[in-house]
Design a protein that fits this description.
Elements lengths: L3 E6 L3 H13 L2 E7 L13 E2 L2 H8 L3 E4 L6 H10 L3 E5 L6 H13 L5 E4 L6 H12 L5 E9 L14 H4 L3 H17 L2 E10 L11 E8 L4 E7 L6 E8 L2 E6 L11 E7 L14 E6 L4 H15 L8 H15 L9
Parallel strand pairs: 1-2, 1-4, 2-3, 4-5, 5-6, 7-10
Antiparallel strand pairs: 7-11, 8-9, 9-10, 11-12, 12-13, 13-14
Helix pairs in contact: 1-8, 3-4, 4-9, 7-9
Length: 341
């Protein structure tokens, strides 16, 4: 296996997780780690840097993993691309649409470089199976979907950097809801209309960012989707219903590092108007349960193959990043970041 010299910029929670997964992969030779907080660099055998530009210059890696706060992502990504590095960046792709477009443009100026964004939810087993089921045609065509993605908050939620609008660019919609928006695009296609929205601070009144975001979206060919992203669920929750012409799919729970979203399941039901199963409105259900999260490994492998073999990035492209940030921008509307009036 070819080993790619790699640095990880940003060694907070996500950077530490990426670091461990990259070590296990075997194809990434980590030659440096970087974080502006020296305490986050303790305990690693690789050279540590507090200045990301010095890290890039001294390590001269082939690959850069960007796991910084949102505000720093565009500068690091664009500089790394300009130096001819392959880049994997965490989501969200910056603080706003302008950040995402800047990174896409820089990527287009350097087509020899691979640029991928970490929308790992597409690689969860329940999502993979749901996509395959839809593509099989067994339950017809997708017509609408409902997505709920909720957090419980925490005792220190109000102090987290993700709620500092200067660093994050937005609240729960940008932090977590962006994953559900990306999945809705993945299953239904591109949305060209926002039929309704409400972006509010309902409970965490001291926040400058929203703790709840509702949206209704519509594709050009008439598919509808609803989204509720919130930090006031009080129990971690992931639910996505995908309604088709001949049945429907329910995705419930998600295996994550916190193990707090419940068992990951995909259940599908075929339309049974003649009650062949014995009861109208209660068709036979088919459930698949999963007990492992391999999403990180799948997306790292796709990125690795793209760098080594030149295979195209299928998920988390720069175009995906721009499209989903366009939706975020439109849901926020003219109010900028934070709760809508």
């Amino acid at each position: 296996m070819k080993r790619l010299t790699t640095v990880v910029i940003g060694m907070g929670r996500m950077g530490k997780m990426r670091y461990e997964k990259l070590k296990r992969h075997g194809g990434f030779q980590i030659t440096g780690v970087c974080d502006e907080k020296p305490e986050n660099l303790q305990g690693y055998p690789e050279p540590g840097y507090v200045d990301w530009e010095e890290c890039l210059a001294r390590c001269d890696p082939e690959v850069v993993f960007v796991c910084t706060v949102n505000a720093a992502i565009p500068a690091v990504v664009c500089r790394a691309l300009s130096l001819g590095k392959h880049v994997f960046s965490e989501k969200p792709p910056g603080r706003d649409l302008a950040d995402a477009e800047a990174m896409r443009r820089e990527g287009e100026r350097h087509p020899e470089c691979v640029l991928k964004f970490g929308f790992n939810h597409r690689y969860h087993n329940c999502v993979i199976e749901a996509k395959a089921l839809i593509q099989s045609g067994l339950i017809g065509d997708v017509v609408c979907a409902r997505g709920v993605y909720g957090k419980a908050g925490s005792p220190t939620f109000a102090e987290e950097w993700r709620n500092d609008i200067r660093l994050s660019g937005g609240g729960i919609l940008l932090d977590q809801g962006i994953h559900m928006l990306d999945l809705l695009r993945y299953f239904l296609g591109e949305f060209d209309r926002i039929m309704g929205r409400s972006v509010d601070t309902l409970v965490w009144k001291q926040l400058p960012t929203e703790d709840s975001a509702f949206a209704i979206l519509k594709t050009q060919d008439g598919k509808l989707a609803s989204l509720h992203s919130n930090a006031l669920q009080w129990r971690h929750k992931f639910d996505l219903d995908i309604i088709c012409t001949q049945g429907y799919i329910a995705l419930n729970g998600l295996i994550t590092s916190t193990n707090s979203y419940g068992e990951e399941k995909m259940t599908y039901y075929k339309k049974d108007l003649n009650a062949r199963s014995g009861a109208l409105g209660k068709p036979l259900e088919h459930t698949m349960c999963f007990d492992q999260d391999q999403s990180w490994e799948h997306e790292h492998q796709e990125f690795y193959e793209a760098v080594v073999s030149g295979t195209p990035i299928r998920n988390g492209t720069a175009q995906d990043a721009v499209r989903v940030m366009e939706l975020v921008e439109r849901i926020y509307g003219n109010t900028g970041r934070g709760p809508a009036l």
